[in-house]
Amino acid sequence: MYWKVQKIGPEQLVKQYGVHLLLGVSILLNGFLFLTMPKGNKMSSETKGNIEGFVRNVTMHLLDSSYINCEKNSVELRKELAPNILAGMVQRKDLPGNDTELMALIRDMSERKQICAVRIDRVATGDPDARGLVPVEVQGVFAFHSSQDTGENPFRFQYMIGQHSETKAYLIADFRDLTPQQAPAE
Question: What pTM does this model have?
Answer without folding.
Answer: 0.72
